Amino acid sequence: MKKLLVPLSLMLVLVIGFALTANRASAINSNARTAAMAESNISIEETPSSPAVQVFQELNKKGQAKIGEGWLYMRQSDKVDVDPPKEEGVVPLIDTTMDGWYYINAKGFAERFVTITRTMDGQIQQVGIYSDGTTWNTMVDETEIMEPFFFENFNYGLPYGFKSPDFKSNNIALEDGSEAVLFTYTLKEEDPYYAFDYSSSARVEFMSYEYIFDSDTGFFVSLKQTVHFEDDSQRVLSYILLEEIKFIAEPPADVLKYFDLKKTREEQK
Questions:
Q1: Burial label, 102 (beta-carbon count in 10 A; 0-12, 13-18, 19+)
Q2: Which of 236, 189, 231, 191 is nearest to 209 (CA)?
Q3: CATH entry, 5-268, from 3.40.30.10, 3.20.20.330, 2.60.120.10, 2.50.20.10
Q4: Which in 26, 33, 201, 234 has the greatest CB count within 10 A?
Q5: What is the pLDDT, as a whole number, of residue 21?
Q6: pLDDT score at 26
């Protein structure tokens, strides 16, 4: 019987957005994800009401209130645990860091941004630039039209779990002593399936998710996505850590230059 393979890494891209698109450029149009992490956000309107959902909604409001006009800088790291792809032409998922600079106007819309994804040794893997109503991704060298988007507090796809019967929240303390909220839930398909990203003969039984948000700021802290197999083994598909988020006066000159590079590239096409 032929195995039905499900690409978990593609699911990961769809959940968290731009940060991992470079790693599976052959599987998904990377430039379509250059709305940056805003594309990973899921609307929390008309969602099921539960104590845990209400806790998240209050945190989200707190974080949204802290997003104002100016340049917002964020840095995150993404660590993955998958097997090397056996298929030709498939770029493997690897550990990366992503730095993003977003200019938000007085109405709360992102007018332009630069995101730079690097390998752990500092090599630039791809750059995403948005300005003047278009995006450009350096890895795939594609441009697309995109309107300014309302910049929402990053939720990294957490509302996907609202409908899960075991969606829960718990107050916790981080290593530095600061207070945070841990949200957990699981997603289980009707039938176990083989995962494209793992060569194991065991099928995937379910996925578990652990989100942490800062209680004081309402901002995202981390996300751990774990794959659970039928043989009771498990592997952490992805661990995302938001290392820094703050407003700055202006991005560095070597970041701002990408807007000029984008303009020059568009004029050449």
A1: buried
A2: 236
A3: 2.50.20.10
A4: 33
A5: 29
A6: 27
Instruction: Write down the domain spans for the chain.
Output: 5-268
- Looking at residue 113, what is its pLDDT? 97
* Spatial distance between the Cα atoms of 107 and 234, rounded to a whole number of angstroms: 44
- Res 9: pLDDT: 47
Task: Give Cβ neighbours of residue 176 (< 8 Å, ≥ 6 apart).
Answer: none
Prediction pTM value: 0.83
**Segments in the chain below pLDDT 50:** 1-7, 9-39, 46
Quickly tell me which residue has 């709360």 as its tokens. 108
DSSP the chain: ----EE-HHHHHHHHHGGGGGGGGTTTS-GGGGTTGGGGG----TTPPP-HHHHHHHHHHHHHHHT--SEEEEEEEEEEE--PPP-STTPPPP--EEEEEEEEE-TTSEEEEEEEEEEETTS-EEEEEEEETTEEEETTTTEEEE---EE-PPP-TTGGGGGGSTT-EEEEEE-TTS-EEEEEEEEE--SS-BEETT---SSPEEEEEEEEEEETTT--EEEEEEEEEETTS-EEEEEEEEEEEEEEES---HHHHHHHHHHHHHHHH-
Report pLDDT for 80: 95
